Amino acid sequence: MAQTLRDLLIQRAARLQERPALTAPDWGTLSYGQLRNRVEGIALGLLAQAPPPALFVATGTAWDWAAEVAVAICGKVWDPGGQPLSPEVLGGSRFNDEAGRSPYHALEHTLREDTPFQEGLTQGQWLTRLRRWNDRQGWDHDTHITLPLARLGDPSLRAALWCVLYAGGHGILAPPSQHAGLPAWDPSPFQGLWTQPS
Prior knowledge:
The chain is an alpha/beta fold. It contains seven helices and nine strands; from the N terminus they run H-E-E-H-E-H-E-E-H-E-E-H-E-H-E-H. The chain has helices at 5-15, 32-47, 62-73, 101-106, 123-137, 155-167, 188-191, and strands spanning 20-24, 28-31, 54-56, 77-78, 83-84, 116-118, 121-122, 144-148, 170-174. It has a four-stranded mixed sheet with strand order 2-1-9-8. The longest helix has 16 residues, at 32-47. The two termini are 17 Å apart. The model has no long low-confidence stretch (mean pLDDT 93).
């Protein structure tokens, strides 16, 4: 069982390599192996720059989600009040920076369940919440959920994406033009994930 969010990403990619993980405009569909590569590419760029403890990005694209996972697997905190991520690590010149490879691998021995994830929430506590939520909902690797890309900054939508990753399911970030005929997205099942007792 995963002890950290880094473990979670590695385990999902190892077990579900070719299964679809994320579909987004401009990216198409990434498999779990491809999602891991994209997230770790951001992580290497971050760690090549000795990042501050709290980071954030809000481009309104799938890079925001990949960056949030990358920040977590680097042992940093995702915080809207944190330092904005440089565009250079989001597919730019610092993406997959070799100077970050050694610091990234060194983290394998220092990331723990009590590593902070968000304000007042550790990685272990977040994993416990995800496990409980997925147990109740019955999500697994056959789960597909379409989410509105325009609401990517909403905490409830971010929680839904974490639930998809935990389940090994397929998240689809759809622009408004692709939502015609679909039921409206209901954020209520995910809203309490950030605040429930661990």
